[in-house]
C-alpha cells in the first residue's frame, strides 16, 4: 500500500465514523508560550481541551505535522541513529471532545488496524496504565476490560506512569493511555526472544505505533488531580511507522516516504545506502532533517539566531555536518533535495510546492554560510591542537567550538582523534551544564492555578468598536519569573484590549475601580484563545466593576501602522510583482516592519514608486470596509490575501481599503487619510530571498522630518548659507580632492630630494653600501625610497627610522645579493632593532618594517644597525 493511500484510508475510516476531517495546522505555534512547535496531534486543539473555545464538531480526525526537537519531547539526538524516530513526522489522530470515550476509541483503533489495514493481530501488543502511588491512581481496569474483548490477555501488558500516563505539560488535562505496539521481527527471532519482553525497550522492530489517550483528569499547579467534567479522547499514530508495518519493511527509511529522497542523496553523493553504518546514519539524518527544515520554512519559520528560528537552524546545521563529515559534501547540496520532496509530498502538503523556490534559496544560503563557518572552525581546531601542551584538549576549548561554530563534541573528538589527540569530556560537559543552568535560570517562571471568580467561558473582544468599557474580572493568576518579577494575568468577561497577534503588539492601558484605584495594563496577549491582561498588581476589590480603558495614542499609532502595512503589501505586489508574499511583520506605535519574499534588491526608483503608491492611497481617503464573519472561501473568492502558516477558522475577518483586501484580525484606522503620511526608512535582505522594509507613519513622520530639517538648517549654517547647498558640498569635495593630489605630489618631490641628499651619505663598509638614518617621511615614502635606492645601487644595506606623529618606524632594505651572500635577513633585523623603539615587526629577508611606541629609541636602533656588518 502506498503511503498516500495509507493516509487516505485513515481519514476515510474516521470520516465514516462521523468525524470532521481537518487539514494539518501549521507547525509553528503562535499563541502558546509553553510550546515552540506542534509536537503532538493534540497541540492545535489545546484550547478545546482547556475549555477556552468550542470545536467545530466534537469528533475530528487529521494528519498533523509534528516536530520533536525541543522542550519536553526532543528526539533530535536519536534521529539517524535509530530507524523509527524523526524530527518531523505526521501524527494521524482522532479526537473526541466530550463525546465518545474508551469503548469506541479502542474498538475503532482495533477495527482500523486489523480489518481495514489487515494487520495480523498476532504481531500486536497493547498496554494499559498500571496505576501510580504518587497520584493514588489504580490500574485502568476500564481499558483492560475493553481490550480483552479484542486481544488475548497475554498480549495486554501493564505500563507505568512514564509510558502510560499522558500529560500535556506541568498543568492541564491529562489521563491514562493505552499504546499499541507491533512486533515485526522474523519468526526465527520471535522464537528466540519473547516479544512481550521487548515492548517499550527501544527495540527497532518492536515499536509503539499508536497511543490512545483517555483524558479524564486535570493536573493543578500544586500537582494534584481533579476529575474533568467532560472526558476526551486524543489519539496519535505515527504515520511513518504505520507505513513501515504496512509496506512490510524493517525501517521507516525503507518506506516510500523516504526512499525517493534517499535515492537522490545517493546520486548526489555517490555513496550507497545500506553499506556502511556511518554513511547510513548520515543519509538518514539528512533525509529526515531536510523535511523538517522545508516544512518549517513553508510554514513561515525561517532559520535565524533566536527562538524557533534557531532550532531550525541547528537542525539544518546538523544535516550539513553529517554530509560534510560522512558524505564528503563540501559544497551546498541539501537544497537540491527540495525538488524531490515537493514532488513527493506536495499533494498532501501543497505549501511545499507553492514555496519551493523560497525553501531552496533559504537552505542553499544557510548551507553556504555554515560551510564557511565549518572551515573557520576547522582552522581554529587545528590551532587549538597545535598549541595544546598535552594530548588532551581542554573541555572549554571544545565547548567554544560547539557554542560558536556549532561543532558538536563527537565531531571535535573525531577530528582530534585523527591527529592523535583526545578531548576532556568532563570539562566539556561541565561547560554545557553551566550554560544550560544559566538559560534555565533566565527563563524560569512559576505560574499559579487560575483563581476563578465567575464562570464565564465566552470572553468577548469588543476592542474593534470601543476603547472604553465596564468589565468584570472573571479569573486571574500569578506568574513569577526572573525577568519580570511578580505579575498578574487578568481575564475579564469582555475586553477592549487588543491582544498581541498578526504582528501587531498588544494594547496597553488601565482599569479603574469604583473607588478610583487604577491598575495599569502593561501588555495584552492571547494564550490558547484566552485574552490575558498583564498587570503588576491585583485590584483591591476583585468583584468590583472596572472601567477598562485602552491607551488611545498607543492604539491609534499601531492601527495607523497596521493599515499602512496592508497598503505596503499591495504596493509591493503592484510594483515588484505578484510573487511577493508576506513573511512576517511587526506593527507597533513607533514604526512598522514588513518582511517579504523577493529575489533582488529593491532599486531606489522602485522604493520611490512603492512609497508614492502608499501615499497616493492615503490621499484617496479610502474608508475601512470590514467584514467580521464571512466564510473563508467567500473572502478568498473576493480576492482577500491569506498568509501561509496562519491558522484560519471557517469564518474570517476581512479588511478592505480600496483594492487592498486581507484576512486580518488586527486593528485599523477608519480611513487611510488618518495615516497622514508614509515614509520608508530602510530596505535590505534578512535571509536568502527575503527582504525587509522598515517604515514610519503618522506623527512619527512629522517628528522625523522635523529632525531632518533641523540638521539641514545646521548644515547650511556651517556652509555659510549658500543658495545651493548640495552644490556647495560638491565644491568642497572637489576642492578637497585637488588638495589631496597636490599634497601627494609634494611628498613625492620631497622624497626625491631626500634621496639625492641621502645618496651622498652612503658609506662603504667592507664592500657594502651602508646607510642608517632618520628621515622625515611616512611609511610608504620610506618604502619607495628604499626600492628606488636599491634599484640604483648594488649591495645596499639601508636602515631608515622615522617619527610619524609620535609613532616610531623602522624600515630595513637589503639587496637580494647581500641576503644570500652575507646571510642577512631584514625581517630578523627589524625584529631585533624594534626592541629599541618598544615595538615589533617583520617582513621579508630583503625588506621589512617595524613599528613601535618609542621614537626616542630610533637613534639607538640606527646606531646598532652597523653591528650587522
Ligand atoms: P516513543 O516511545 O517511540 O518515542 P512516544 O511515547 O514518544 O513514542 P507518543 O508521544 O505517544 O510517542 O506519540 C504518539 C505516536 O507518534 C507514537 O506511537 C509513534 O507512533 C509516533 N511518534 C512519536 N515520536 C515520534 C518520532 N520522533 N518520530 C516518528 N514517530 C513518532
Ligand atoms: Mg518519544
TrEMBL record:
Keyword Protein biosynthesis on entry: yes
Keyword Hydrolase assigned: no
Protein name: Alanine--tRNA ligase
Organism: Winogradskyella ouciana
Record field: catalytic activity: tRNA(Ala) + L-alanine + ATP = L-alanyl-tRNA(Ala) + AMP + diphosphate
A single Gene Ontology CC term: cytoplasm
Major subcellular site: cytoplasm
Name of the encoding gene: alaS
Record-listed E.C. numbers: 6.1.1.7
Annotated PANTHER family: ALANINE--TRNA LIGASE, CYTOPLASMIC, ALANYL-TRNA SYNTHETASE
Amino acid at each position: 500500500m502506498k503511503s498516500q493511500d495509507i493516509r487516505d484510508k485513515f481519514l476515510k475510516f474516521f470520516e465514516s465514523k462521523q468525524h470532521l476531517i481537518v487539514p494539518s495546522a501549521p507547525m509553528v505555534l503562535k499563541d502558546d508560550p509553553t510550546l515552540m512547535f506542534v509536537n503532538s496531534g493534540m497541540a492545535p486543539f489545546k484550547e478545546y481541551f482547556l475549555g477556552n473555545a468550542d470545536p467545530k464538531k466534537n469528533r475530528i480526525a487529521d494528519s498533523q505535522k509534528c516536530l520533536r526537537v525541543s522542550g519536553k519531547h526532543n528526539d533530535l539526538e536519536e534521529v539517524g541513529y535509530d530507524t523509527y524516530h524523526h524530527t518531523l513526522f505526521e501524527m494521524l489522530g482522532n479526537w473526541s471532545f466530550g463525546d465518545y470515550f474508551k469503548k469506541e476509541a479502542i474498538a475503532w483503533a482495533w477495527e482500523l488496524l486489523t480489518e481495514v489495514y489487515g494487520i495480523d493481530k498476532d504481531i500486536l501488543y497493547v498496554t494499559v496504565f498500571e496505576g501510580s502511588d504518587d497520584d493514588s491512581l489504580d490500574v485502568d481496569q476500564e481499558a483492560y476490560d475493553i481490550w480483552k474483548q479484542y486481544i488475548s490477555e497475554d498480549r495486554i501488558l501493564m505500563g507505568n506512569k512514564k509510558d502510560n500516563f499522558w500529560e500535556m505539560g506541568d498543568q492541564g488535562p491529562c489521563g491514562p493511555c493505552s499504546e499499541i505496539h507491533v512486533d515485526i521481527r522474523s519468526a526465527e527471532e520471535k522464537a528466540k526472544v519473547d516479544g512481550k519482553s521487548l515492548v517499550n525497550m527501544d527495540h527497532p522492530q518492536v515499536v509503539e505505533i499508536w497511543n490512545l489517550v483517555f483524558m479524564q483528569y486535570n493536573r493543578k499547579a500544586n500537582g494534584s488531580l481533579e476529575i474533568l467534567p467532560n472526558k476526551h479522547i486524543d489519539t496519535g499514530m505515527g504515520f511513518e511507522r504505520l507505513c513501515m508495518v504496512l509496506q512490510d519493511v524493517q525501517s521507516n527509511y525503507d518506506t516510500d516516504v523516504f526512499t525517493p529522497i534517499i535515492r537522490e542523496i545517493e546520486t548526489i553523493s555517490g555513496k550507497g545506502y545500506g553499506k556502511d553504518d556511518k554513511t547510513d546514519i548520515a543519509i538518514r539524518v539528512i533525509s529526515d532533517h531536510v523535511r523538517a527544515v522545508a516544512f518549517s520554512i513553508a510554514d513561515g519559520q525561517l532559520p535565524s539566531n533566536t527562538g524557533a528560528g534557531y532550532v531550525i537552524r541547528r537542525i539544518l546545521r546538523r544535516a550539513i555536518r553529517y554530509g560534510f563529515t560522512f558524505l564528503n559534501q563540501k559544497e551546498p547540496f541539501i537544497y537540491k533535495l527540495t525538488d524531490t520532496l515537493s514532488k513527493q509530498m506536495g499533494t498532501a502538503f501543497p505549501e511545499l510546492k507553492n514555496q519551493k523556490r523560497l525553501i531552496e534559496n533559504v537552505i542553499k544560503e544557510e548551507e553556504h554560510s555554515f560551510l564557511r563557518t565549518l572551515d573557520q572552525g576547522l582552522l581554529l581546531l587545528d590551532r587549538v591542537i597545535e598549541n595544546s601542551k598535552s594530548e588532551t584538549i581542554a573541555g572549554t576549548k571544545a565547548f567554544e567550538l560547539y557554542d560558536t561554530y556549532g561543532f558538536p563534541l563527537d565531531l571535535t573528538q573525531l577530528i582530534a582523534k585523527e591527529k592523535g589527540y583526545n578531548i576532556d569530556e568532563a570539562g566539556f560537559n561541565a561547560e554545557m551544564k553551566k550554560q544550560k543552568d544559566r538559560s534555565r535560570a533566565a527563563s524560569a517562571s512559576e505560574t499559579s492555578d487560575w483563581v476563578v471568580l465567575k464562570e464565564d467561558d465566552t470572553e468577548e473582544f469588543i476592542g474593534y468598536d470601543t476603547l472604553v468599557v465596564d468589565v468584570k474580572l472573571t479569573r486571574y493568576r500569578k506568574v513569577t519569573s526572573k525577568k519580570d518579577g511578580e505579575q498578574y494575568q487578568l481575564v475579564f468577561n469582555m475586553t477592549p484590549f487588543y491582544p498581541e497577534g498578526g504582528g501587531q503588539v498588544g494594547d496597553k492601558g488601565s482599569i479603574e475601580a469604583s473607588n478610583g484605584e487604577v491598575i495599569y495594563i502593561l501588555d495584552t496577549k492571547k494564550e490558547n484563545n484566552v485574552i490575558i491582561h498583564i498587570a503588576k498588581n491585583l485590584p483591591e476589590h476583585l468583584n468590583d466593576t472596572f472601567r477598562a480603558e485602552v491607551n488611545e495614542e498607543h492604539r491609534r499609532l499601531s492601527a495607523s501602522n497596521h493599515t499602512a502595512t496592508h497598503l505596503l503589501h499591495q504596493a509591493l505586489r503592484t510594483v515588484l510583482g505578484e510573487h511577493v508574499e508576506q513573511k512576517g511583520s511587526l506593527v507597533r506605535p513607533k514604526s512598522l516592519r514588513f518582511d517579504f519574499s523577493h529575489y533582488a534588491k529593491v532599486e531606489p526608483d522602485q522604493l520611490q514608486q512603492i512609497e508614492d503608491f502608499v501615499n497616493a492611497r492615503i490621499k484617496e481617503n479610502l474608508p475601512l470596509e470590514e467584514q467580521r464573519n464571512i466564510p473563508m472561501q467567500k473572502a478568498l473568492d473576493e480576492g482577500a490575501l491569506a498568509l501561509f502558516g496562519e491558522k484560519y477558522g471557517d469564518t474570517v475577518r476581512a479588511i478592505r481599503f480600496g483594492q487592498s483586501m486581507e484576512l486580518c484580525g488586527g486593528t485599523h484606522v477608519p480611513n487611510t487619510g488618518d495615516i497622514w503620511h508614509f515614509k520608508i526608512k530602510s530596505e535590505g535582505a534578512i535571509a536568502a530571498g527575503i527582504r525587509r522594509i522598515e517604515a514610519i507613519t503618522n506623527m512619527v513622520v512629522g517628528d522625523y522630518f522635523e529632525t531632518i530639517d533641523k540638521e539641514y538648517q545646521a548644515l547650511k549654517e556651517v556652509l555659510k548659507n549658500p543658495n545651493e547647498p548640495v552644490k556647495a558640498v560638491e565644491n568642497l569635495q572637489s576642492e578637497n580632492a585637488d588638495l589631496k593630489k597636490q599634497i601627494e605630489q609634494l611628498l613625492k618631490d620631497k622624497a626625491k630630494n631626500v634621496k639625492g641628499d641621502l645618496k651622498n651619505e652612503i658609506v662603504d663598509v667592507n664592500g657594502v653600501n651602508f646607510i642608517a638614518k632618520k628621515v622625515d617621511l611616512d611609511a610608504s615614502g620610506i618604502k619607495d625610497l628604499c626600492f628606488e635606492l636599491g634599484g640604483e645601487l648594488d649591495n645596499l644595506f639601508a636602515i631608515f627610522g622615522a617619527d610619524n606623529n609620535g609613532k616610531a618606524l623602522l624600515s630595513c632594505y637589503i639587496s637580494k645579493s647581500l641576503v644570500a651572500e652575507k646571510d642577512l635577513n631584514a625581517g630578523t633585523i627589524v625584529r631585533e632593532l624594534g626592541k629599541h623603539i618598544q615595538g615589533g615587526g617583520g617582513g621579508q629577508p630583503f625588506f621589512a618594517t617595524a613599528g613601535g611606541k618609542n621614537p626616542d629609541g630610533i637613534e639607538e636602533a640606527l646606531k646598532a644597525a652597523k653591528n650587522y656588518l
